[in-house]
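Hi V.,

You were right to ask for the full record rather than a summary. Here it is.
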Amino acid sequence: MNWLNAEFDEAYTLQLKVAQERHEQRQARKDAVVQSLADQAFERESLVEEAEAQTREELEQAARQANVALGGLVACAALLALGVWWRRRAAYLAEVATVSPRVSREQFRRETEESLQNLTQKNKR
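Predicted structure:
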């Protein structure tokens, strides 16, 4: 009977050992899977941060290019407005230069009287 008890104890101990080893193997696999998932999550997080940084840099570069283009457009518009103003000013000055100098009061009065007389003569006819 002692022999049978010893065999049962030995079989039970062996079963416990096998169960413990299987448990440790399962735990090791679980730990490996958890570690793998953690590594992948960390890698994804770093890739997302890198992509965000790259996107931010691209947007900043696009904004700088847009500012440069807008500045060039404003400069061209200002030069165009200045050119138009200069041409109109030159045309106005040329027109003012061709008009006779100021007419004296008496000459203006004579011309006005002549115009009135001409009109009255036309109306009498």
